Amino acid sequence: MQNKITIIDYGMGNLRSVEKKFERVGAKAIVTSNLSEISNASKLVLPGVGHFASGVTKLKDSGIWDVLNEKVLVKKTPILGICLGMQLMAKSSEEGNIPGFNWIDAEVVRFNVGDTLKFKVPHIGWNTVSLMKDSFLYKNISSDAYFYFVHSYHIKCNNIYDILTTSEYDYKFTSSIQIDNILGTQFHPEKSHDWGETIFKNFSEF
Fold first, then answer.
1. Looking at 83, 123, 154, 157, which residue is catalytic?
2. Domains in the chain, ordered, with CATH?
3. At 62, is the secondary structure helix, strand, or coil?
């Protein structure tokens, strides 16, 4: 198997931005929707911007859905979900009456903020993360690092041990997850400058 990072193109994501960030840290990455290339990837990245149900539909219509289930659940290939890409790993979402991958015991819920004047939805901008357990993904990242968020929905994990980091936006929410080979960030590393590059570097070296 060729040692490369495959960024999955299903029509919903900042694909070129993600690819460029991997290139900046010296990692070999390709953007593709080709099922054979996805099947032979050593690492996978599932970006995503948009509607949960649309993402599921596009992945299924393209045939990528079944390939990813095989790669992630059977072959245990490392995968990094970004924003919607992470949300698709959950059981379901309030954004569309359609099941997700069900790789993690979680649901995706809309922000339910108390102070709607102070905390606008979507949550847009820079925020910190609090590490809940050790992970290679956050190697060499300081506790005061900021990451860029753009989202109206967030994952609600039923198992606290699946939570990698939390962030605060009126209340505490899950901002990244890790279950064995399955990782995800609610924030956008490709828009998070040096700290985002470190996330990609760490994933590429895993």
1. 83
2. 5-205 (3.40.50.880)
3. helix
151 is catalytic: no
Alpha-carbon dihedral 102, 172, 83, 180, rounded to 10 degrees: -50
190 is catalytic: yes
Q: Which of 123, 151, 154, 188 is catalytic?
A: 188
Whole-model pTM?
Answer: 0.96
The DSSP-derived string for 72-91 is IIIS---EEEETHHHHTTSS
The pLDDT tens digits of the residues spanning 157-169 come to 999 999 999 999 9
The 10s digit of each residue's pLDDT in 66-104 is 999 999 999 999 999 999 999 999 999 999 889 999 999
Distances from the Cα of 37 to the Cαs of 29, 32, 86, 141, in angstroms?
12, 7, 21, 31
Q: Match 């069900």 to its residue by tokens.
A: 102
